[in-house]
Amino acid sequence: MAASRRPALLSWTVVVPLLSVVVLALSWGRDLGPVPVAVVALALAGTVLAAVHHAEVVAHRVGEPFGSLVLAVAVTVIEVALIVTMMASGGPEAASLARDTVFAAVMITMNGIAGISLMVGARRYGETHFNPEGSGAALATVATLATLSLVLPTFTSSTPGPEFSGTQLTFAALASLLLYGLFVLTQTVRHRDFFLPVETDGTVKPEDHAEPPTTKAALTSLGLLVVALVAVVGLAKVESPAIEAGVRAAGFPQSFVGVVIALLVLLPETLAAVRAAQRDRMQTSLNLAYGSAIASIGLTIPAIALASVWLSGPLLLGLGATQIVLLALTVLVSALTVVPGRATRLQGGVHLVLLAGFLVLAINP
């Protein structure tokens, strides 16, 4: 019996998060040279991959759509922690970090995660199928949240610049929480069947045939997931000066730091979504994509609004004209993608081109 347990205890998915905590303790608060920075980066990448594994174990135990929800909330916790810590330690350039990161997360989830999942699924099965009712509801929630929190500040006149007044920010935060709560209730209780993988004829797919993990294994993975997420947040904070220095050295605008943060924190969900697409469970991939976008806005904006009480400096949330155009086009294309309930490689390619356009304009606005 002991011999059968040893491989699990010595698995890299167990060892890496624990080693990363040690790396975090040794590197926290220190000025790191090139070699330690590289070690931290490797530990960060390995911990992200371990977090994916443990999130998938938990997801398999609780089933869909709860599994997607667990990963979406976990990733958003990382995002909020990174934004708040970097805004607290940053100068005037940090005023737009929340906007840059949240907008990047929306573009990466709606075009990147959704696009690559559609491409992978359609390439393997010819055509991917999903529930348009659930995906459409999620898309409508994303569009509303993005407009209320990221578009309206550009056009309000109570305060100069792309900034909400105190009353407007409070409304946006409360509306974001309300919409997020309604979406979670719809996804997990009232209309759970809208968010389950479907067959070509629209009927709900059976659960994966693999034996679900035991309660003990799921709880162990949940604990290791928490450890991994804490390590990711801490290591990303340690790595953030190197990220900012790298962005400056590459000649990119400071706003690209938000893109790097979003790419980093969304890596676990991207990998999980691609794996679901490979198993012909496209609805799970879209749950991850749109659920992440909803959580990114619906939880991050209220958290940043609360943090702004003690953070000095303005909180710039309004998007520029180019970003608004990209957001509007993304919502339109996404609607055309989800309405039929099926998609091919063409739709995946269109979303990936939109992502490429976003990245090019983020580098060279």
From TrEMBL:
Alphabetical UniProt keywords: Membrane, Transmembrane, Transmembrane helix
Position of the signal peptide: none
GO-annotated cellular components: plasma membrane
Stretches assigned to the Sodium/calcium exchanger membrane region domain: 38-188, 221-363
Superkingdom per UniProt: Bacteria
Classification via Pfam families: Na_Ca_ex
Annotated localization: Membrane
Keyword Membrane among record annotations: yes
InterPro entries: Alkaline_pH_Ca-Antiporter (IPR052946), NaCa_Exmemb (IPR004837)
Bilayer-crossing regions: 35-54, 66-89, 101-122, 134-155, 167-185, 217-236, 256-276, 288-311, 317-339, 346-363
Gene Ontology molecular function terms on file: potassium:proton antiporter activity; sodium:proton antiporter activity
Topological type in the membrane: Multi-pass membrane protein
Name this polypeptide is given: Ca2+:H+ antiporter
Lineage: Bacteria, Bacillati, Actinomycetota, Actinomycetes, Pseudonocardiales
